[in-house]
Amino acid sequence: MLIIYGVRTRARGKLIKNSCKILFLCLSVSLCFGCKKPKDIVSVVSNDYLKTVLVPKPVDFSDVNIIEDLEFIVLETSDKSLFGTVSRMRVYSDRIFLLDPIYAQELFVYTMDGKHISTIGANRGQGPQDFVKLSNFEIDYVNELLLVMDNWGQKFMMYDFDGNFIRRIDSKFHVTEAVLLPDDHIVHAKQSDEHKLPGQSNNKIIITDFNQNIIKEGFAFDDNKNINMTNNGIIRSLPNGEIIFAPRLRDTIYNVTIDSITPKYAIDYGVNKRISKQTIEGFKEDRENPINVDKALIRIINEGYMCFFGRNVESVDHLYLSLGFNSYTIAVFYNKNTGASIALSNDGEREKRIESGLYRLLCSDEEGYFYGSLNTTQIDRLIPLFPKLKEIDDLEDMNPIIFRYKIKNVE
Known about the structure:
The chain is mainly beta. The protein has a single domain, classed as Neuraminidase (6 Propeller), CATH 2.120.10. The chain contains six helices and 29 strands. The chain has helices at 27-33, 277-286, 290-302, 353-358, 376-382, 389-393; strands at 2-5, 39-40, 42-43, 51-54, 59-60, 67-74, 88-92, 95-100, 106-111, 116-120, 134-140, 145-150, 155-160, 165-170, 177-181, 185-191, 203-209, 214-219, 234-237, 243-246, 252-256, 260-268, 308-314, 318-325, 328-335, 341-345, 363-364, 370-374, 401-407. Strands 3, 4, 19, 20, 21 and 22 form a six-stranded mixed sheet that branches. It is globular, with a radius of gyration of 21 Å. The chain starts with a strand and ends with a strand.
């Protein structure tokens, strides 16, 4: 195991590649579409490249070791870089991007050896470059840009990889899940009851220009999985240029282009339990009353059903899926080359949270590493397994640490 401390400065140039192309609007789009009704994105039902992820019977986290090359990255702490949790992380081109939307409510940029570069979102207010509340972000890997989202302020902010401000985009929609297309368009994943059709889900994909005019729109749905949920799907960019859309409770991951929505991975629970139609109907009723939503989720846990809320991370060789939530969690690793899968569970036991912490993954990199974060309590529990972490545990005022590892080939 290697412990990396944030004391080195890695020389690198500015990453403002092609940023000038986003300083003007795509006038041709406005001329072509004007006030016309947006075109539909084609939902491709069948796909020769669709892969089925078969979920085997889960084994206990502590009974198997599929982790190799485990490393920990200690992040530099200062008055401008203290945070409490990590909800979204991206690693690319010698940069680590971390979002804490709960405590710090800011986006932090670090080097791979833990040196703090910049903080985005600390400027609160109503100014042209201010945030009401930073809520999310995603990377444009093609142009090496950050799309930072302010849901309360209903706007996007664009930055380079060093945190330098580039432009602001005011939105007509709730700003929750979105990615940049390389041709100056934005793909949104949103709830859209106003567009809901009979027998279809309200998981909606829309593509807009930078003026937020809808250019194209489409639904991602399956006839036998019509779940009317208030939650949005999870949409993300991949370093290879792909855009992935994973609607919650839909057991399918889609590939999105400006022309089509195509299923890429389908989850098959095999002999394992999955959410029953009766449970889904009960959940739909409970969601009408926010007080009952937690009770509905607890019921799903207690009944032992597997459920996919959209959390997935794809590396070069493996696909990671998180099934369930809270103390009842199943981590699935699918080998894209062999088609084999392994499922790991903590059987709902809270004292095994540390194992599930190691399997709560947030992103991957170009070398095939998966990444996540651990807080100080989890570090204490890990010391018997990794004694070198005692050095980290002695540090004061420490941020959550970042871990990364590769997965042994699943046979």
